Amino acid sequence: MEETRWIKCPECGEKTRVKIKKTTIMKDFLLFCHHCKKEFTVDVENFKVIVIENDKISSGS
Length: 61
Prior knowledge:
The protein has 61 residues and is an all-beta fold. 0% of the residues lie in helices and 61% in strands. It is globular and about 35 Å long.
Protein backbone atom coordinates (compact mmCIF):
# COMPACT_ATOMS: atom_id res chain seq x y z
CA MET A 1 0.00 0.00 0.00
CA GLU A 2 1.29 3.44 -0.92
CA GLU A 3 2.25 5.78 1.92
CA THR A 4 0.05 8.83 2.48
CA ARG A 5 0.48 11.81 4.79
CA TRP A 6 -1.67 14.69 5.99
CA ILE A 7 -0.51 18.18 5.01
CA LYS A 8 0.20 20.09 8.22
CA CYS A 9 -0.55 23.79 8.62
CA PRO A 10 2.56 25.94 8.18
CA GLU A 11 1.25 28.30 10.89
CA CYS A 12 -0.01 26.12 13.76
CA GLY A 13 1.35 22.67 12.78
CA GLU A 14 -2.02 20.89 13.05
CA LYS A 15 -3.24 18.46 10.38
CA THR A 16 -5.32 20.00 7.60
CA ARG A 17 -8.07 18.08 5.81
CA VAL A 18 -5.82 17.34 2.81
CA LYS A 19 -3.96 14.06 2.39
CA ILE A 20 -1.17 13.51 -0.16
CA LYS A 21 0.82 10.63 -1.63
CA LYS A 22 4.52 10.69 -2.54
CA THR A 23 3.55 11.10 -6.20
CA THR A 24 1.21 14.07 -5.51
CA ILE A 25 2.18 17.29 -7.28
CA MET A 26 0.25 20.52 -6.62
CA LYS A 27 1.07 24.01 -7.88
CA ASP A 28 -0.55 27.17 -6.46
CA PHE A 29 -2.84 25.09 -4.24
CA LEU A 30 -5.01 27.06 -1.82
CA LEU A 31 -4.66 25.30 1.56
CA PHE A 32 -7.05 26.21 4.39
CA CYS A 33 -6.42 25.32 8.04
CA HIS A 34 -9.66 24.76 9.96
CA HIS A 35 -7.79 25.11 13.27
CA CYS A 36 -6.26 28.59 12.90
CA LYS A 37 -8.62 29.72 10.09
CA LYS A 38 -5.82 30.85 7.74
CA GLU A 39 -5.21 30.24 4.05
CA PHE A 40 -1.90 29.54 2.38
CA THR A 41 -0.94 29.18 -1.27
CA VAL A 42 1.40 26.19 -1.44
CA ASP A 43 3.31 23.99 -3.88
CA VAL A 44 3.58 20.29 -3.02
CA GLU A 45 5.93 17.73 -4.50
CA ASN A 46 7.51 14.57 -3.04
CA PHE A 47 5.96 15.20 0.43
CA LYS A 48 7.53 18.70 0.55
CA VAL A 49 5.16 21.61 1.15
CA ILE A 50 6.48 25.04 0.14
CA VAL A 51 4.48 28.12 1.19
CA ILE A 52 4.22 30.55 -1.72
CA GLU A 53 1.93 33.09 -0.07
CA ASN A 54 0.20 33.55 3.29
CA ASP A 55 -3.34 34.78 2.50
CA LYS A 56 -5.31 36.74 5.10
CA ILE A 57 -8.86 35.71 5.96
CA SER A 58 -11.36 38.36 6.97
CA SER A 59 -13.41 37.50 10.06
CA GLY A 60 -16.61 39.03 8.63
CA SER A 61 -18.86 37.61 5.94
